[in-house]
Amino acid sequence: MNTFNTLCAVGFLARTSYALARTPVLALFAVSLGAGPEAIGFCVAISTITGIFFKMPAGVVADVLGKTRTLFAGLACFAFIPFAYLLVSSYQALVVVRFFHGFATAIYGPVAMAVVVQVAGNRRGEMLSWFSSVTILGNLLGAPLGGFLLTRLSAGAAPHLSHFHIIYGVVAACGMASFLLALWALRRQTWEPEAPKKRTLAAVLAQFKTGVREILMDRRVFLTSNMEGVQNLSLGALEAFLPIYAVTVAHLSALQAGLLWGVQMAATIASKPIMGRISDRYGRQPLLFWGMWVCALPFALIPWFQDFAVLMALAALFGLGEAVVTSSAAALVADYCRQDHLGAAMGAFGTIFDIGHAAGPLLAGALIGLWGGLDYRVPFASIAALLIIAALIFKGFINGGKRQGL
After folding, report:
1. What is the mean pLDDT of the segment spanning 24-40?
2. Does the pTM of the predicted model rise above 0.85?
């Protein structure tokens, strides 16, 4: 198995573990512990908030201390932190564990993307899309599996605490499998041109400041990352409240709620490699612009329907829009930055990604609570409007940059 295929297999297992822990099980777990809309949004967002503060430092650390060590540190978080869910019996404890579980993607995400960019050469868009699609397969499996397990364990009744503990035991097993596979297949692998040299703390901090400053001062990187961040605001909102809407408003089962998320993931997986190849050949900016519209329209329409088939179609269309946006955003950021700052660039990209992902559940929870807890139409329409506004700002910047020769 070559390095890229091994990374894909490791990413698949890690993402399966993380997805199983998240949708639809997490929101329903929070409900069973007595959480309201705002509290559910916070619980879903808290692991992403971890990424906001630690994803960029993790990317820079990968550039300075080595991508191999950083990759294994992230996989260790996937392997060992999920065992803490087995001790959760209160909402407060669930929030604490979710915060620490967020270190898994915060550390692993930027370095994995940087490694793929490094080995992809001039096929960045295509290879990033393939890597993302394979790891998203974990999300595709995790969400329906979580819904299926919860439905079978509860047998139509209200889920018991022990049912959630069983599911999170499976989460821990998948995370451990990812770590052990990497330990076996990648232990002698390195993605540095030479063994990382020992550096003083002052040198590490200087490299950190230089990388972060150059990345954040590049407005092209910032605005492109912002498009992904706003798109992920809608994704985070859907991740938190589509299961609640499906079960409490549309009166679907937990399994059907998981399938809604699964079909969204399936549409993303099926479309992303093709969109990545198109972005490599014909340009990334138009895909980013129109992809935001393809996400916004079905997102706004979802709370107007309760029929399972219609919701499946809307979820699939949203997944297509996500593929259009994400197939180009990371590759465009990589196009803009220096090779020796790939980790920092992916960290900055991931941080803005996480800000949006965390803001989605928080904003949706606040809006849904404001509108009485059952009316999702105005909250979802408001978030969809943000996607359209972000797309128009991006288009204006690109046109202005072309006129100024940027």
Report:
1. 91
2. no
